[in-house]
Each structure stands twice: as structure tokens, then as C-alpha cells.
Amino acid sequence: MVERENIFPEGMPKRIVKGHVLYTPVVTVVPGKLVFVSGILSRNSKGEIVGKGDMAAQIRQVFENIKTALAAAGASMTDIVKRQTFTTDIDAISRTSKPVWSTAATTCRPAPPSRCAGYRIRTF
After folding, report:
1. Are 66 and 114 in contact (CB under 8 A)?
2. Three-state DSSP state, 36
3. In what order do the strands lie in the sheet with 26-29?
4. 10 Å Cβ neighbour count for 66?
């Protein structure tokens, strides 16, 4: 059986719906060896959206949340082996992500493999 630990770092919001936590922000499997960080959003510790309308500010907040999540598992940005980004504005993320990542992860060289997927929101 795999040893799994769910971590809810202080300083990060919990997404609770009808009394149930929607997801675990950080999961370790065999602690100290492999850490999974779930969908991190640009929300502060109160759960408020940071940088509405400002992609760079949102990305900076996401990276701060990632740092917080990793620290809770005893890891840092230098330990990231893969990054996956989902966005609704692929053009803006292309212009904004690289400079922000370069600043946020100066100790993470070379940058890990990454994947970015753009999605359009449909309204009915």
C-alpha cells in the first residue's frame, strides 16, 4: 500500500462546497520523494481573487501559492519537475508567463518541462 499524506498549507484557501473540501492542494506519496500539487489559482489566503484583469499579477500569486504548497511538503521551486498551465487566454499567457516564471523561479534552472493549454469559455 502506498503511503499518502494530504496537506492543507496555512495561508492557502480551502475550496469548500456544502461542507466538503473539493480537493487537496498538496499530496505527498512516500513523503519527501514525490509531491503532487493540485490546481493552484490566483487567490489569497482569504480566498479572494488576486489581480483580476492582470495576468502577470495572477501568475505571481499562483507562484506564491505554489511556493507555499511546496514548502508545506518540504520542497521548493527548485524541486519542480513538470509544470502544467491552463488558461482562457493563450496569447496573454504566452506574453506574460515567461518573464514572471523567470523572476519567480530564478533558482530553478533549467526550467522544467511545461505544458500550456488554452480553453474557450462557452456561454449558453
Report:
1. no
2. strand
3. 4-7, 26-29, 34-37
4. 22
Q: How many domains does the chain have?
A: 1
59: pLDDT strictly greater than 60: yes
pLDDT at 106: 55
Q: What is the pLDDT of residue 93?
A: 77
Q: Measured in whole angstroms, how far is the alpha carbon of residue 38 from the centre of its chain?
A: 7
Q: Judge contact between 7 and 73, C-beta under 8 A.
A: yes
DSSP tally for the chain: helices H, then strands E? 2, 7
pLDDT band at 95 (very low <50, low <70, confident <90, very high): confident
Closest CA to 12 of 28, 23, 1: 23
Please give the residue range of the domain that contains residue 51. Answer: 4-118
What are 89's strand-pairing partners? none
User: Which three cell numbers, joined as nine digits, stand for 52?
Assistant: 483580476
**Whether pLDDT at 109 is above 60:** no
Q: Reply yes or no on whether the pLDDT at 28 is more than 70.
A: yes
Please state, as a whole number, how many other Cβ atoms lie within 10 Å of the Cβ of residue 47: 12
* Domain-embedded: residue 124: no
